[in-house]
Amino acid sequence: TKGAEEYVNGSLKEAFESFDNATTIDPENATVWFARGMALSGLKRYEEAISSYNKSIQIDEKNADVWYARATDEGYLGRMNDSLASYDQSLQIDPENKFVWYDKALALRSLGRTQEAEEAWSTYRDLSYAHISFSDNSGESMEDAIVIMNARTDLDGVGSEYYYLEKRFGTDAVDRDRISQYLVEDEEGRSYDVLEVHLTSGETATIYFDITDFYGKGFV
Description:
The protein is α+β, with helices and mostly antiparallel strands. 54% of the residues lie in helices and 15% in strands. It has two domains: 2-128, Serine Threonine Protein Phosphatase 5, Tetratricopeptide repeat (Alpha Horseshoe), CATH 1.25.40.10; 133-210, no CATH class. It has a five-stranded mixed beta sheet with strand order 1-2-5-4-3, with helices on one face. The model has no long low-confidence stretch (mean pLDDT 92).
């Protein structure tokens, strides 16, 4: 539609006007009210955007994206409790949207609800690396290295290493102080990331990851 093209092209004022006209023609179209709200949000007219989202929700309350958009704009206005309620509504409909979990964690942290924020962050991390597979190896030597499979890029793979360490050794700055990292290769040309985990208990654990499956895929 014209409004959608204008929105994609960054012509937010024109997009709003097109969507606003569309709501007059078809006032029971939840998608158009949502699009109108997104255009208003882009113009930083957050109160009006939320009103438009509310109209969309009245027509169709099962669109997780509308609740997410409302939560975001409520956050912009500093209404963090309202924002959290909208995030929760979005997650009831689509509990596997990692971006909603991430933003919910930030909102909880801003309210000082640290434990809940950590739980939301943990869910975000689980969803982010759900596609990654780790072998059952101990990782305590090159011969018994943990093989990382299905990483899409170098960035994805390296991130999964830290995710694994988080699950095994606990949270950064709480259970572990720092991580030293270096790359090695064996005679067969396989690549390994070696991570030395310095625990707050004073111990150090050295973990070998076989990164051959993703090494060199780039960071994009």
